[in-house]
TrEMBL record:
Pfam families: Annexin. SMART domains: ANX. InterPro entries: Annexin, Annexin_repeat, Annexin_repeat_CS, Annexin_sf, AnnexinD_plant. This is Annexin. Belongs to the annexin family. Belongs to the annexin (TC 1.A.31.1) family. A pair of annexin repeats may form one binding site for calcium and phospholipid. It comes from Brassica campestris (Field mustard).
């Protein structure tokens, strides 16, 4: 369930564009007006605002936001205002151009590949080609070491069936194939990649249930105990969690971003922005179940200013 609250009566895109342009004019910027408009509009409405703003003022809204805002507030507003496919394509490209690619950074590619709808993933790949004159899978293959690239390319190029139809017999058979690969210490076996990379989310969840019923342990636990490449093991566990319980994954992302010394604002922003229109209500619930604490209060206690107000508005709070 989404958390953003859209007003019962929404101004026209032209009116919203005028409000935003007025917020940029004069002495200083009216950050609260920007939050009231953009943080309370859905993807379709934000697209119309971008188009209307360009038509009326002859300027790109993202460019004006970039010049008027600053810091983590600026990053969050721009990430939210961009077309989601372009947003994710840019996030992926940033990871792939990093001088040191870590498992923690590859988490973004897993999120895009495993927690998006099939149509969104296709849109991300199209946006990536348009922006960078290269394919996402090509850049993964050339930037990420083997065998991690093998798994990530499989995930990024998948087009999963998105209905709830499940074949329990297939689930049992493929649970056996996964168990055999783990027994042979072959986490990058073609059977593993085929199953994880092509089956629907609902079919895979049925396979994970069949695995536990047949072999006593969860698939995640057996992967964790499999000797071999530690990075591949960690990446595959991340994939399993994103497929089985995406809300738990993002609850963990939020928790990790605000725990310890300092705040990882980029990860916190990404989690809130990516899920605000999808399942952030569930993420909030899982956060409480996992950590016995309020996610909203944890965020309020860790960030401040307009950045805090923007995130909290995406979470459905009134500012």
């Amino acid at each position: 369930m989404a958390t953003i609250r859209i007003p019962d009566e929404v101004p026209s895109p032209a009116q919203d564009s005028e409000t935003l342009n007025k917020a940029f004019r004069g002495w200083g910027t009216d950050e609260k007006a920007i939050i009231r408009v953009l943080a309370k509009r859905n993807e379709s409405q934000r697209k119309k605002i971008r188009e209307s703003y360009k038509e009326i003022y002859g300027k790109d809204l993202i460019d004006d936001l970039s010049s008027e805002l600053s810091g983590d507030f600026k990053k969050a507003v721009i990430l939210w205002t961009k077309d989601p496919a372009e947003r994710d394509a840019r996030l992926a490209n940033k990871v792939l151009n990093d001088k040191k690619i870590t498992i923690e950074k590859l988490k973004i590619l897993v999120e895009i590949s495993c927690t998006s709808s099939p149509n969104h993933l296709i849109a991300v790949r199209k946006a990536y080609c348009s922006l960078y004159d290269s394919s996402l899978e090509q850049d993964i293959a050339s930037s990420v070491p083997f065998p991690l690239a093998k798994l990530l390319v499989t995930l990024a190029t998948s087009f999963r069936y998105d209905k709830e139809k499940v074949d329990k017999e297939v689930a049992t058979i493929e649970a056996g194939m996964l168990h055999e690969a783990i027994s042979k210490k072959q986490l990058d076996h073609d059977h593993v990649l085929y199953i994880i990379g092509t089956r629907s989310i609902y079919q895979l969840r049925a396979t994970f249930v069949a695995y536990k019923q047949s072999y006593g342990n969860t698939l995640d636990k057996d992967v964790d105990g499999c000797p071999g490449d530690a990075d591949l093991r960690s990446l595959l566990q991340m994939v399993i969690l994103c497929i089985e319980f995406p809300e738990k994954h993002f609850a963990k992302v939020v928790r990790d971003s605000i725990e310890g010394f300092g705040t990882d604002e980029d990860s916190l922003t990404r989690a809130i922005v990516m899920r605000a229109e999808i399942d952030l209500m569930k993420v909030r619930g899982e956060y409480f179940n996992m950590y016995n604490a309020s996610m909203d209060n944890a965020i309020i206690g860790d960030v401040s200013g307009d950045y805090k107000d923007f995130l909290m508005t995406l979470l459905g709070s009134k500012i």
